């Protein structure tokens, strides 16, 4: 019998292993078209490039299935749905996760993947996705979900084969994407089609390629239609110039994403709450696990509300004011693009930092080649977030400074997932990371940088003064909740009711006449407290060189480095 699509389909496994093929193919196709999807990113706000968000969400699902695939599609699809929810990035990633949830619910009771099951999954995904946002808009990925569900249901009546149904859904996806500017003024004004819908259409096309035995993602896909605006109204990147000018002047706030794990969680009530606190909320999940996406003027308000419901994880916060301006200027004309590309360095740095002062110190020490990512004791970035930072760093070679012992392992995983050459220097504090960064040169090869940047770590000692959140007995020292504790080299060495008193006692005998002591003041420190600390320490450490800087770090009154 000749090898045709029909015979290949009849011989193909229709179980959990086929789902893994689909996921691998969709991830590859999105990676191939990532830049194209990003260039279309104009709705609802530029809260992170859509293509990048979808790629990272899919990589999370793909990685989950590499070692945890089951022949039973109900088991495999459930794993896919959870991985997509936890790994979802941005609005587009979270809505995409609803597709996997719909597929998992459709396959919950079946063993084989069928055209009917695929169509049912799209219908469920559409209904869940529309419910995930308080004010769903047509002309977005939601519309693509809905019209694909309708097309696949009609296709099942004609012929129930999986390949036939997937082809119908993919064709409908492209047609819907072509028409999105007719439904949404912001797309029409920008002169583009919906980016998330286009990304989903590419995923469906990759599934058809898998069914045909072809290699998904082998070629770039052109966005369908566009709006047909006159060339005189468009920039060289195809985005309308008038639209870009408006983007640069509009305020966006912070894109805030996090997961909540708990019991008795109600997605509807959390969605209503986030809609009152911020803008553009998307809330999805179950009674035990929710993923929240919301735009906030103050991200802490949303995080505090989430903490009242359960344990937070996968926290991701981005300043959309800066992203909007960078996005607009990056699309304004070809000369701007060439200028941006010209700023590429031999080696760049990704560093975890919290606090305005520390962020400024890192930018200055990084000589324009540092990519910052919020991260610390109470905010551990995910693997996907670190991968994103590596990909956005201005070099093909990247050094990662985790600056926290709890982030080192995640950073090690992230460098394996990035396509760039990346290496981790195991810095365990922001102070140590800053000392390491001072040895960095953006014009030096990565191996030479790693060698130089590792040298200070053997001589820099790190410490902190903060309030205890519970009673404890550590390293032979008792501390009560609300008292200050002094930690040096990750050991509790002093406790007491005064931050300054604890600082003095923890440094007694630790700093000699040849030492350089740098003290970083925290965000809650009172005015003049750093100067008072220097005066008091000068009485006890008369020969030491003491330097003070405003770190602005949360939770810690003082961070310090001894060299």
- Helix proportion range: 40-55%
Overall body shape: elongated
**Number of helices in the DSSP assignment:** 23
Query: Could you give the distance between the termini?
Result: 76 Å
CATH architecture label of the largest domain: Alpha Horseshoe
The quaternary state of the protein chains shown equals single chain
> How many distinct domains?
4
List the helices and strands and how they pair.
Elements: H1 5-11, H2 16-32, H3 34-39, H4 50-67, H5 73-87, H6 90-106, H7 115-132, H8 141-158, H9 162-183, H10 185-190, H11 195-211, H12 241-249, E1 254-261, H13 267-277, E2 279-285, E3 289-296, H14 299-307, E4 311-319, H15 320-332, H16 334-342, E5 348-353, H17 356-365, E6 370-374, H18 383-392, E7 397-401, H19 408-417, E8 421-424, H20 430-437, H21 446-454, E9 461-467, E10 472-474, E11 477-479, E12 484-488, E13 491-496, H22 499-507, E14 516-521, H23 529-540, E15 545-550, E16 556-562
Parallel strand pairs: 5-6, 5-7, 7-8, 14-15
Antiparallel strand pairs: 1-3, 1-4, 2-3, 9-12, 9-16, 10-11, 12-13, 14-16
Helix pairs in contact: 2-4, 2-5, 2-11, 4-5, 4-6, 4-18, 5-6, 6-7, 7-8, 7-9, 8-9, 8-11, 9-11, 12-15, 15-16, 18-19
